[in-house]
Task: structure prediction
Amino acid sequence: EPEVTQTPSHQVTQMGQEVILRCVPISNHLYFYWYRQILGQKVEFLVSFYNNEISEKSEIFDDQFSVERPDGSNFTLKIRSTKLEDSAMYFCASSEETSGFSYNEQFFGPGTRLTVL
Amino acid sequence: AQSVAQPEDQVNVAEGNPLTVKCTYSVSGNPYLFWYVQYPNRGLQFLLKYITGDNLVKGSYGFEAEFNKSQTSFHLKKPSALVSDSALYFCAVRDRGFNKFYFGSGTKLNVKP
Result:
C-alpha cells in the first residue's frame, strides 16, 4: 500500500539554525500539506501546496518558513532560523485531485519530531 | 472564523458498549468533514469523511459518523467498542472554497476491558 514517508524521524538542532524536513508524498497525489503538533496539543495546519505553489497558508507560516518541491518526488519544509517554540512534531500529508479540486482525504506521514535546544 | 470543537478531552467506555466522540464545527459555507485516528508515535490515519449525500457515513474499523447540519455537528460513533479502539481521535473540517484544514483539539478514547 502506498504511503507518505518523512525523514528524519527525529531532528535535534540549536536555536537559530536552519532545518529542512523532508517528505515523499504518495506518487500520484497532487496536493501536499504540512502540519505541526506541539506535544499534547492540537494538529495545526501550516501550508498547502498545489501545482508548484502555495495554495493556502496559516498565520503560523511566516517568513521563517518555506516549502519546496525540488524534484518530482520530494516535498520539503524549511525553517530558516529555528526558535524554541518550533519544537513540535511535523507531519506531511498528501491527497489526490478530483475534478481539479481536492476534497479527498489526506494521507499522513509518520512525522518528524523537531527538538530545538 | 473557521473552527472545530471537540468538547471532550477524554471519553471512557467499556468494551462492547457503544461509543460517541463529539465534534461541532463552524465554517462559512458547506463543509467537508473528516475523522482521523492517531495511535501513539504515529501519524494520523483517515477513518471517514462527509462530502455530500447521505448524512450517515460509514468508515474504517466499524466507525460511522452522522452529519447534522442544523446542529453543525459530526459525531463519531461505533456500536460496540474494542480495547484496540483506544487512541486519539481528531475531527477536521475543510471549507469548500479553500484548501485549508482545521483540526479539533482531539479526544482521547479509552476503552476498558
